[in-house]
Amino acid sequence: MAARRPAAPSVRLFCLPYGGGGTSIYAAWPSLFPDDVEVCPVELPGRLTRWREKAFERAEPLVDELATALSGELDVPYALFGHSMGALLAFELARALRRRGAAEPRVLFVSGAPAPQLRRRHRQIHDQPDDVVVGRLRELGAVPEEVYAEPELLDLLMPTIRADFSVVETYVHRPEPPLGCPVVAFAGTEDREVPADRVDPWHEQTTGGFTRRLLPGDHFFLHSARTALLDSVRAALTATAGRPSGAAGRPTDLLDRPERKGQ
Known about the structure:
Shape: globular
Number of strands: 6
Number of helices: 8
């Protein structure tokens, strides 16, 4: 786990990647936050610095390992951010830590991901032939085009890519009491994979306040609308400073809907 270690952080922001991604997704983030925010990109097995390790194919054991790894890092308030697959992992990680008796995150940020209780719409491909998996990757735009021109590199990445698809496709939502922390959900205006109406039901997963931000871009607005996204993250962390972790705030269903404001 790569991390920036300020002298006295007021909050640690753990960032979980989308499928096929690694800590490089968040490489620029540490320099874009104030010094009291410690940005901690989480490296999952099977990629970059952990490429020799076998990637997890199921969400439950992966979340369990993450909860164990982070348990020693919660001496200060923390927040969780995840995009796509990472949002699902961040949500389940918050619940797993709660079950272990840890405080909930100051804020849970979920980006480009349908609410976990919704039925998945896409057919499973993690066990399909390579050409089917590659076709799906091209649809998503998840892998740089130059990778497809390097068959050996693609072969090296394929086990982890399949494992990440499997994590999402085999996930089973198990109802638990809603989280007490605020949830901020991000959706892309042109995201055909996860349109905004599939992001809105995240409000059911919290009693601590819900905000949805609609940002310009396709499924990877995480990159194209980074400035606006990080402005929202910083604002939410500032707004919740001093609030006890895991405290249930006034229940609200505060959906930010720019499209209804003529924006």
